[in-house]
Amino acid sequence: MTLITRRGLLKAGGAAAATLPFAGRAFAAEPLKVAFIYVGPVGDFGFTFAHEQGRKEAQAHFGENVVTTYVENVAEGPDAERVLKNLADDGNKLIFATSFGFMNPTVKVAKRYPDVMFEHCTGYQTAANIATYNARFYEGRAVCGTIAGHMSKTGIGGYVASFPIPEVVMGINAFTLAAQKVNPAFQTKVVWVSSWYDPAKEADAAKALFDQGADILSQHTDSPAPLQAAEQRGLMAFGQAWDMSSFAPKAHLTAIENHWGGYYIERIQAVIDGTWKTGSVWAGLKEDMVRMAPWNERIPPEVVKAAEAMRDGQADGSVKIFSGPIVDQNGTEKVPLGSALDDPTLLALDWYVAGVQS
């Protein structure tokens, strides 16, 4: 594995490497070069950390047959485009762009490098050499919501959120709907920090939510700062993307874990075999791309049982958290009884369920 800093990569530039067609075992003579770009630091212990564990799993699986590199702290926008271009110039034949805001830069660069395969996480634009992949994070949010509905004494959950894009909106809604199945009066208060990773802003948002009456906290940001704020207040919270219990052993009830390693191994193997094809993958608890971290021992046994029923029901398809009736913040029925939101609708979700204060 090689670590490349964003600054070093941008300075280096690099001459364009000769490209090989993706047919047969084109890469048998030398190791396949695979790159990953991350929006945050690998030490965020959240979303980027989870992708880094996936990269390490893939590197260990392929050994000397593959050389992986990563660039961390890549800003979404022009920086991402430059980093992607330089990674392609450096001879990488498969590049994983692991944040929603990398979508447009990935599309631009992929057009210039038709012999390089690109995989974009959480996006929706595909091309002959661009595939997309995503995890059903909302399934884990529903498990957390079930716990919150049982354990919140105030009936108010806090939510530290990054950006109002569909994957975040559906998580807020899933958390709220699951909590309301336990406590119909449950409310979710949201504070937006306009960042995926900003520990100071995340901590301030958590404190503000606690001051507004929330006694249990979820987050769609990547640092453990909200959990640490909960620990300091003697309150409760859920980790993001990985087990964060070491930062808040009392407050941390469980966490949504994102496991990317299996997907990375599968897609790298496809490039080696010359069978890589574009497509879109959206996997969750059923496929083991989403898991729940161990339950905190402070969760009562009956609540663990309810959480496991929500987890297992979503995995086997018997529970669909977005089944009707569902009304929005304005009281308008969005999903009638007997219906459920389909995947295309979820992937464009831009409204909040009743009980969300955003």
TrEMBL record:
Q: Which domain of life is it from?
A: Bacteria
Annotated signal sequence is: 1-28
InterPro entries linked to this entry: ABC-Purine-Binding (IPR052910), PnrA-like (IPR003760), TAT_signal (IPR006311)
Q: Which UniProt keywords apply?
A: Signal, Sugar transport, Transport
Name by which UniProt lists this protein:
Simple sugar transport system substrate-binding protein
A single cellular component GO annotation? plasma membrane
Name of a matching Pfam family:
Bmp
Boundaries of each ABC transporter substrate-binding protein PnrA-like domain copy? 33-294
Q: Which organism is it from?
A: Amaricoccus macauensis
Keyword Disulfide bond part of the UniProt annotation: no
